[in-house]
Amino acid sequence: MFKILEELIEIIRSRKNATKDKSYTNQLFNNKTLSKEKTEEELQELLEAIQLNKNQTHEAADLIYHLLVLLECNDIKIEDVMDELKKRQQQSGLDEKASR
Fold this sequence. Notes:
Blueprint: H1 3-14, H2 24-29, H3 32-52, H4 56-73, H5 78-88, H6 93-98
Helix pairs in contact: 1-4, 3-4
């Protein structure tokens, strides 16, 4: 199942050098403000979908896609995020929050 995420990440990374007019992902890469705004928009749409109990899966997929693009746009590797999550498994969430 998580292979789909790995494939999506590969596709997103491959779109960095695609032609703008042929790749929505590339357009997001070339406009960090747009990428940020779209991620915020998709988050709001997911929250509304949850509240209305409607289209949650669709909106969650949109948010995950836009979040992955936003991370890549800002040179934040998902592998580093996963490593951070792995580290956090070693302590309770309350302890981790208190350490900040």
